[in-house]
Amino acid sequence: MATVELSERFSISRKTAHKGINRYEEFGANGFAELSRRPHVSPAQTPAIVSEELVKLRTKHPHWGPRKLLHIMGERHPDWLLPAESTANRKLRRAGMVRVRRIFTPLAAEHSHVRSKERTCKRSRTKG
Questions:
Q1: Where do the H-state alpha helices sit in the chain?
Q2: Among 42, 58, 44, CA closest to 93
Q3: Gap between the Cα atoms of 13 and 93, Å rounded
Q4: What is the pLDDT of residues 54-111, one digit of tens each?
Q5: Who contacts 88 (Cβ-Cβ below 8 Å, separation ≥6)?
Q6: DSSP, residue by residue, 16-34
Q7: What torsion, rounded to 10 degrees, do the Cα atoms 57, 97, 48, 54 define?
Q8: Considering the domain boundaries, does residue 73 fall inside one?
Q9: How many CB atoms lie within 10 A of CB 70?
């Protein structure tokens, strides 16, 4: 069957049809399985040595946060390109070194009448 006929039959472009044919020729029936979309290379990825040093320093000082750890690392290794504070926090979380704390907030329903009265008072003051 010609590529044009395949594309019309399955309502796909000829480019997609060629892609499918090439995958089938290379991998057989497994070529139609969904492939990973993850990039093969991440040039902006934090170097392993920096991540290891971050984890090692956190092990020595378990109560220090990412900001302080990065500051100390910057003083010890001024030539290293250090990650952002949020990235350092993510690295520590993945290593199981950060305990996520739950934040308790009052229920909105309990205080809704207070908020609405405050808003009303503020509005009446500005208008009058």
A1: 3-10, 14-27, 48-60, 66-76, 85-94, 108-127
A2: 58
A3: 44
A4: 999 999 999 999 999 999 999 999 999 999 999 999 999 999 998 877 887 766 555 5
A5: 54, 66, 69, 70, 82
A6: HHHHHHHHHHHHGGGGGSP
A7: -20
A8: yes
A9: 21
Asked if the structure places residue 74 within a domain, the reply is: yes
Angle, CA 20 vertex, CA 14 and CA 25 arms, to 5°: 125
Condensed to tens digits (0 to 9), the pLDDT of residues 15-48 reads: 999 998 898 999 898 888 888 888 888 888 999 9
Is the residue at 119 inside a domain? no
Q: What's the chain's length in residues?
A: 128
Question: Other CB atoms closer than 10 Å to residue 71's CB: what's the count?
Answer: 13
CA distance 74 to 71: 5
Burial class of 79 by CB neighbour count within 10 A (0 to 12, 13 to 18, 19+): exposed
Report how many domains make up the chain. 2
